[in-house]
Every structure is written in C-alpha cells, then in structure tokens.
Hints:
The structure is a single chain. The chain is an alpha+beta fold. The protein folds into three domains: 6-50; 67-161, no CATH class; 183-320, Glucose Permease (Domain IIA), CATH 2.70.70.10. Helix content is 43%, strand content 23%. It has seven helices and 14 strands. The chain has helices at residues 22-50, 54-98, 106-110, 115-123, 129-161, 163-168, 304-316; strands spanning 6-9, 14-17, 183-185, 188-191, 198-201, 204-207, 213-215, 220-228, 232-240, 243-253, 260-261, 266-270, 280-287, 290-292. Strands 3, 6, 7, 8, 9, 10, 11, 12, 13 and 14 form a ten-stranded antiparallel β-sheet that branches. A two-stranded antiparallel sheet has the order 1-2. A hairpin with a 2-residue loop joins strand 9 (232-240) and strand 10 (243-253). The radius of gyration is 41 Å and the shape is rod-shaped. Residues 112-119 and 121-125 have low confidence and may be disordered.
Amino acid sequence: MKKIKYYYNTNSLRYEKLVTPFRVKLLRIFGFLSALFVSSVVVITLYTKFIPNPGDRESKLKYDAVKDSYTALGEKVKSLQQQMADLEKRDNEVYRSIFEANPVPDSARAKLQEKAKELEKVNVMSDDALGKTISLDLNNISARIAYQANSYDAIEKLINNQENKLASIPAIQPVSNKNLTRIASGFGYRIHPIYGIPKMHKGLDFAAPQGTPIYATGDGTVATAGLSTGTGNHVIINHGYGYETVYMHMVRIKARVGQRVKRGDVIGWVGSTGASTGPHCHYEVHINGRPVDPVYFFYNDLNAEQYDRVLKLSATGSAKSFD
C-alpha cells in the first residue's frame, strides 16, 4: 500500500496531502541516473587503473619476457658480428696470405644472397622495429657465413694442392706453451731494455726456463746455426716458398747447417746468450725477407679461443721485453 504524505499549510492552517509535481519527479529521476552514471565511470576507471584484469597482467608478463628475449638476442647478434669480423680478418690477413691468394673484398662478403627473398620474409613479420632489425642482422650474418664457407672451401683446395708447402710453413709455437703464459713481448716498436731507445721488435719473446727445448716450427733446411754478438746462439731455418724463421739466445744449439728438419724437431734449448736480459727464445718469421708478426702462424697449435687470447697477450706483453 502506497504511503501518503501530508504537510501543514500555514495559509489554510490545516494539514493537506503532499502532491509532488511531475516535473520535480522527472528531475529527481534524472539526477539519480546522472549520479549513478558518474559513480559507475569513477568506479570503472579506478578498477581498471589499480586492479588490472588477469588478461592484462598476463599480456604484460609476456611483453616483458619478449622484450628481454629481444635484448638478449641483440647482444648475441653483436657477438656473432664480432666473431664473423675476426674470421674474415683472419681469412684475409693470414690464411689467404699464406697461400698467396687474393683477399676476398668486403663488398663481396657483405652482399646478401637472394636479397629479395630475404626481405620478403622480413616484411611478413610483426611491425616490431627491433625484431626487424635483428632479423636483418641475422640475415646479413647468414649471408656472410655462407660466403665465408665458400672462401674456406677454396682455401681447402689450396691446402690439398700444396701439402708440401703447408708442411713447410711455420705453424706452431717454438716452445711448449700449453697454458699460453710464456709470451713476454709482442711484435712492434718499444723501448729496448738494454739500449733504452725506441726500436722495432721484429718477433715474439717466449719466456721459459733455461734448457727448455726449442722446436722447428715448420719443415725446412737449417741455413744458419752459430753465435753472434746480438743474437747469441741462434738458428735460422729456410722453409722454402719465401718463408724463413729465426730462433735467438739459445744456451746450446742442436741443429747443424744444411740439416733437414721437420716441424716439431728440437733445434736447441732456451738460454740468455747475446743481448738478452733473461732466459727466453726470441722468435721471428720472415716472408720474402720481410719480418711479419709470428702470432699469425700458430694455427696448428691453437683453437679460436686460444688464438684470441694469444693476440691479446702479444699486444700487451711488450712491457716485459727481454731483448
């Protein structure tokens, strides 16, 4: 039953029935609906902002995981690019120079094979710019690796055709150096420890106890075996094909002039004769009479990781020079 409301009319001095006009009712309904709408908007906004739904949380976690994966992948791409550059440098400056083959132009290596097909693959990926960049970098590395593989195939053919030359080329360290701790001085200019003046150091110094065996680094014929003022007891081996190696400051020489030696034969023992400040083997490699850095001729001894370490040691070891 609807409840009837009354009010006291001061003009007629009696209670009268309260009748609400339709316009007032309409305004009240509109006000209620407006307040309800505003409250709903506020509640939904606060809920969305501070209480994300499980789907949004899961999406954010997936996004963060993908972002982290892209970052790690980007670092891996940079590492692969550096390793590829090192391989290309070694190919041009070491292997191809050994076999007297022309270096491979950088433009040839960098050319993407089947470029249109690879770009089409990239275009169908997501619009994520980082993903496209990484994909392009990986495609570039893949093309360079394929080209480098062809280059190494060509080098392998040169090896097969030049077995004698390969056996003659210096390819090991002149003293046992498994822990890579004996390189004391690198190739290049430095202050001479005895004369105190800048002087070209034409080889590598291998610090070792007196009496440590010194090995021929390639097949050849002993051209010199004797004593002189600066080099002390020393041996020079002619390997043919324009290659020659020099071993200085021996305590005693085993090899004799005219003797044929094989790679790994003992030709003498470490000492400190001549212009030397301590027991070591000063080792040089000459190509057509020109001294070159011996560090590029240890490929029979070292894997890629050891080779990189030897490069660093030879570059930083000049402060420990013995001659």
